[in-house]
Design brief:
44% helix, two-stranded antiparallel ribbon, mainly alpha
Amino acid sequence: MFSGILQPTHLIIILVIVLVIFGPGKLPEIGGAVGKSLREFKKSTQEPVEPEKPQAAASGGSATATTTLAPVKVCPKCQTENPAVNKFCSSCGGQLELE
């Protein structure tokens, strides 16, 4: 069904369209950005993932860690808790009260 989808003729047409859209001045910039993105993606997929250690256990402190809660605003319409930085409710879209 999709055999030969990236034939040399198709690639040349795609490159000509990209050249027309972005111009010759932007192509090295775009190529560098794409290359950097691919390198970063490859690097992140090859690195082993280390589980995060709890802060108290890593520093040798007590096993009971205190939890700090982020400030919240309560929506007057639906009574949903939202982060304090929000201006509108994430559930109903109503405006949150200003402090």
